[in-house]
Amino acid sequence: MPQVDRDKFLEEGYLIVKEAVPRNKLERVRQAYEKLVDRQREHWRMERNEGDPPGGHWETSSQPRLMLERPPLVKDHDAETAPAIEVWLEPKIYGASMELLGVSDGASTEMMMMCNPTTDHGPAKWHRDHHPIDTAPLQGYIDDIIEAGPRYVQWNIPLYDDNILWVIPGSHLRVNTPQENREMLADPCAPVTGGVQTQLEAGDGVVYILPILHWGSNYSSRMRRTIHGGFSIFTSYPDLSFLEYLSPDAASAFERWNGLSRAAVDGTEAALRAVVDGDSSRYVAALDRLHPTRGEKGRILSTVFLCKAALSVRLAKDPPYPDVPEDLARRIRGEHPITLNWGPEFANRFTDSEAETLWHRFESLDGLLRTEAEHFVPGFQSGPMVYHFNEMPKNYGPKDFIAGWGS
Ligand SMILES: O=C(O)CCC(=O)C(=O)O
Ligand SMILES: [Fe+2]
After folding, report:
1. Ligand 2 mean position, distance from CA 86 (Å)
2. Of all atoms in ligand 1, which is nearest to the CA of residue 156?
3. Which of 127, 161, 299, 316 is most open to solvent, judged by the fewest CB atoms within 10 Å of its CB?
């Protein structure tokens, strides 16, 4: 018996899951997270800059956020905080995520917690968690989701009642309407027509499909401890030292997921290597191994992600070229597993001359992703840019990409 309504999820782009954290476990999870909050607050206190209040970032941020897998907090886990990580394996969270992704096993991605600010900061801006400049145009995501479902599902799981998140149902399957654009341009921090406020009791969860339009409607000083993160077959774990504190089952899940991650990095290299070698059937096979169950739309979306990867590899070599906007250069240096960006080290897998060939074969696709003049569409995490926010290259599929290699 499925435990979630996948059809409704795919149509509306979000789903409320009652008691995602069973009531009888809630207190344990709260206590584990509160220990992490205390430890992170101590780091923020120590790291504060001159002129900052005594609590540093904790007191200045509108949404202080714990990053459980990142330094320094990743080194602060112990037996007492293990429930903060193990909660991700709750059947109603992990099991539901697998159903919604349509995979037998997928990995937890960046595990985080969003906290209230110490003073009222009011509403944030409406946005999609999407920066097309270093990933792909919105339509590429939409086509891929319609073809085969989401590659990533994101969760908010509040440990105290929480109604901060709003979503626009169905907006993950379309570009912004003219009315949404007008409203967001006029005031990005006010309710948008069609928005629905989520009403979550402690322990409930909301799971949603990026790139849905959503809004952090009120960062007030009211107590907020909301688990945030997601699941995907594409992830990366910079430091798994916390595994020693987890239950054997939880630890083995992370070992398994780390294996998925390594395979995805190797699979990305294999796809790019096929491009370097000009081997089209090996390229398509590598794409299908990297992401089974996808069709033509999935292959072209992955190809656009790989275009950014090729750019990143090329830019890491000496002398760096081509010239790219600063926002793109900065983002591409980061790591973004869901879009096959494995961070700066990945470039070391390719020689200078392979990087040059690779870029040569992706360059015309990059040209198709660009616009003639700088433009702006509201509701994204990219500012004004010379790349398309919405449109994918017209009538362009993997075959067209491959056909361009010879030229
Ligand atoms: O606070 C929330 O619930 C939403 C947060 C959010 O959208 C974000 O940080 O990207
Ligand atoms: Fe967001």
Report:
1. 24
2. 3
3. 161
pLDDT class of 1 with cuts at 50, 70, 90: low
214 CA → ligand 2 middle, Å? 6
3-class secondary structure per residue, 19-73: CCCCHHHHHHHHHHHHHHHHHHHHHHHHHCCCCCCCCCHHHHCCCCEEECCCCCH
Domain residue spans in the chain? 6-256, 259-406
Give per-residue pLDDT as tens, 157-190.
999 999 999 999 999 999 999 999 999 999 999 9
- pLDDT category, 406, cuts 50, 70, 90? confident
| Ligand 1 mean position, distance from CA 55 (Å) | 22
Question: Does the CB atom of residue 129 touch ligand 1 within 6 A?
Answer: yes
Contact 208, 14 (CB under 8 A): yes
pLDDT in tens, 215-235: 999 999 999 999 999 999 999
**Which CATH code is given to the segment(s) 6-256?**
2.60.120.620
Q: How many other CB atoms are there within 10 angstroms of residue 295's CB atom?
A: 12
Cα–Cα distances in angstroms (integers) from residue 7 to residues 40, 171, 199, in the given order: 39, 15, 21
Say if residue 129's pLDDT is above 90. yes
Residue 305: name the closest of 103, 63, 134, 126 by CA.
134
Closest ligand to the CA of 115: 1
Encoded tokens for 202: 């402690």
